[in-house]
């Protein structure tokens, strides 16, 4: 059984929140929901991209899949560059 704080967070959630509070912005870790919102897509699309090997780099930390903010920004720039080269 997971320990839950008075705020209703598990200890794991508290640690992730603390980690994201102290990391530089470019290295903050994002959950699937945060990543989907940032990329203006859905969590199910993120899962599909992961399954077919598309989308930004991610990694598993325990049972949770996470994305680094710097990897998200790099992937967006790669998509932009690839599409602007095709259009030229």
What can be said about this structure in brief?
55% of the residues lie in helices and 11% in strands. By secondary structure, it is mainly α. It has a single domain (11-87), classed as Orthogonal Bundle (Multidrug-efflux Transporter Regulator, Chain: A, Domain 2).
How would a textbook summarize the main sheet?
3 strands, antiparallel
Characterize the overall form: elongated
> Order of SSEs, N→C?
HEHHEEH
The counted number of beta strands is 3
* CATH architecture classification: Orthogonal Bundle
Q: What's the overall average pLDDT, rounded? A: 86
Structural account:
The mean pLDDT is 86. Strands 1-3-2 form a 3-stranded antiparallel beta sheet. It has a single domain, classed as Multidrug-efflux Transporter Regulator, Chain: A, Domain 2 (Orthogonal Bundle). A hairpin with a 2-residue loop joins strand 2 and strand 3. It is mostly helical and 88 residues long. It is elongated, with a radius of gyration of 15 Å. InterPro entries: DNA-bd_dom_put_sf, HTH_17. It comes from Nesterenkonia natronophila. Keywords: DNA-binding.
Topology:
Elements: H1 11-22, E1 29-30, H2 32-38, H3 43-52, E2 59-61, E3 64-68, H4 69-87
Antiparallel strand pairs: 1-3, 2-3
Helix pairs in contact: 2-3
Protein name: DNA-binding protein
Region (Disordered): 1-22
Domain Helix-turn-helix: 31-79
């Amino acid at each position: 059984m997971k320990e839950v704080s008075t705020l209703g967070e598990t200890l794991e959630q508290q640690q992730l929140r603390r980690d994201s509070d102290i990391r530089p912005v470019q290295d903050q870790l994002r959950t699937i929901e945060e990543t989907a919102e940032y990329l203006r897509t859905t969590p199910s699309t993120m899962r599909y991209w992961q399954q077919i090997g598309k989308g930004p780099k991610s990694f598993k930390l325990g049972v949770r899949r996470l994305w680094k903010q710097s990897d998200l920004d790099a992937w967006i720039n790669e998509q932009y560059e690839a599409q602007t080269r095709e259009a030229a």
